[in-house]
Amino acid sequence: MKLRWSVTVLIVIVMAGAAGQAQAPVTTKVAGAGGGIVITALGHGSIMIESGGKVVLVDPAGMFADLSRAKPADLILVTDIHPDHYDPAAVAKLRKPKAPVVVPPAVAAEKKIPDVIVMQNRMMRTNEEAPAGITVISVPAYNIQRGPAPGQLYHTQGRGQGYVVAFSSLLAAVRTGKASQVYVAGDTECVPAMAQWVKNVDVAIVPMNLPYTMTPAEAAECVKGFRPKIAIPYHYMGQKPEEFAAALKGSGIEVRMLNFYASAGTK
Ligand SMILES: [Zn+2]
User: Fold this and answer.
1) Domain regions of the chain by residue span
2) What distance in Å separates the CA atoms of residue 178 and residue 119, rounded to the nearest whole number?
3) Which of 44, 87, 115, 196 has the highest CB neighbour count under 10 A?
């Protein structure tokens, strides 16, 4: 009897843990500095950001994401060459006619997405160059220490990039904190360029999965460096994003959990 009770308790605890993850929503609304923002987890590294009637997709990729939730995009941003981020077929399907697609040079070199806007690390497209009227800043994304073998890195410096998406074409509005801003970090460890390029963002969406990016604890320490109002874990396959939330308790940075693995049934 006692043993059976223990087993029952154990099963309830395990199920409650799994349910906690599954019950996280796939979408959340944020009151941004320049107007409301809706963020939707499409899966793993794929995100939809909506504000001011514009739809931005970051890394729409069918590998681990449920793209049936994605709306036709006014702007698509691709962070790197790996197939969980770069999916030319998905881009073709979700791109509104003539919608701009921003890619790093390594993605452009594949020549699989027509009419791309190429941005290298540390660039800004704003004012008359703002794609779809949205200011875009490319923030370096790379590994500092982690790679498949000594002396190698999963993501080499200069190839991939995260993006700050600011919902205004006017740099003056962005600089004076009047535009809603979201930072999607891409596959990266905590790199110094973040402190330089990521400022006053409403939301930061940061990766945490080993061995490719950061641990949840490292990611939490990292966001303390540039202090978004809200931080959302993504790209957390195999990790416990709850540890990220716990590490930021009392920091003044709100953590919102989205279920990035609702369709895959994995974590
Ligand atoms: Zn990835």
Assistant:
1) 25-255
2) 24
3) 44
What architecture is the 25-255 domain classified under in CATH?
A: 4-Layer Sandwich (3.60)
C-beta atoms surrounding 52 within 10 Å: 15
From ligand 1's centre to the CA of 174, what distance in Å? 28
Question: pLDDT tens digit string along 182-229?
Answer: 999 999 999 999 999 999 999 999 999 888 899 999 999 999 999 999
Q: For residue 183, which phi and psi values (nearest 5 degrees)?
A: -110, 125
pLDDT digits (tens, 9 = 90+) for 147-190: 999 889 999 999 999 999 999 999 999 999 999 999 999 999 99
Distance between CA 66 and CA 52 in Å, rounded? 24
Cα 236 to ligand 1 centroid, rounded to whole Å: 9
pTM, whole model, 2 decimals?
Answer: 0.90
Centre of ligand 1 from the C-alpha of residue 82, in Å: 7
CA of 230 to the centre of ligand 1 (A): 22
